[in-house]
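Backbone shapes recur. Consider a single case.
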Amino acid sequence: MYILPTLIVLFLLGCSEPELTLDNEFDPSNPNFIPPETSILYTSPPLIGNVSSVNSIIVHFEGNDVNMDFQYKIDNKEWSGWSEQPFATFNFLDEGEHLVFLKVVLFLCD
């Protein structure tokens, strides 16, 4: 039996890492990132000098993106569930000052 010598030639190719581009608009490291924001637009009935004469009020708010859900609470009450609705109704308010808190979540897809 005769064995033929075999020559094996290996070619090794190096790969370079692609340059990282910050093009994900939802990445806070991206210089063009715009964080989700909310603002209170108005109340129903309107406040006069930040005072309401009724014990029920609707607070209307908006976010800076259409794919947002909101969560809210007043004073030290429980947070509401998440909702697409950009308003909150608060009933049976006692006299005195009240603080309204608002949270927002931004959905990355429809």
Residues 38-106 form one domain. The mean pLDDT is 81. DSSP finds no helices and five strands in the chain. The two ends are 70 Å apart (CA to CA).
